[in-house]
Write a structure and sequence with these properties.
Blueprint: H1 2-7, E1 13-17, H2 22-29, E2 35-40, E3 46-50, E4 57-61, H3 62-81
Parallel strand pairs: 1-2
Antiparallel strand pairs: 1-3, 3-4
Length: about 100
């Protein structure tokens, strides 16, 4: 919520969250002037905040955080798996033509 408050400083903000979290969101939003609970958002948890006067949407849902972590970790795994490509030896440089390079069968 604090990220949204920083992003939308002084603007009217609509906040969406899980239906199960409505009471909690209503309670938390009392601490934020010009923020209102606007309805349900299908997610694992967290909030989405947006303003009419801005094209920005703050998606701070667990889903978006998990997706970002997944991408970061996938990049790290890829780097570790293929780090030999940085040393100049890439698996794409090795091609199996099905023939013996010495000419013998």
């Amino acid at each position: 919520m604090d990220d949204a408050a920083t992003e939308f400083e002084g603007r009217s903000v609509r906040v969406y969250g899980r239906a199960e979290d409505e009471a909690l969101l209503e309670e938390v939003l009392t601490d934020y002037e010009s923020f209102e609970h606007a309805g349900e958002y299908d997610c694992l948890g967290g909030i989405v905040a947006e303003s009419d006067s801005s094209r920005v949407r703050v998606n701070n849902t667990f889903d978006s955080i998990l997706a970002e972590l997944w991408d970061d970790e996938l990049r790290e795994v890829s780097t570790r798996l293929f780090e030999d490509s940085r040393s100049g030896s890439r698996s794409s440089d090795i091609t199996d033509t099905g023939t013996d390079p010495t000419g013998e069968s």
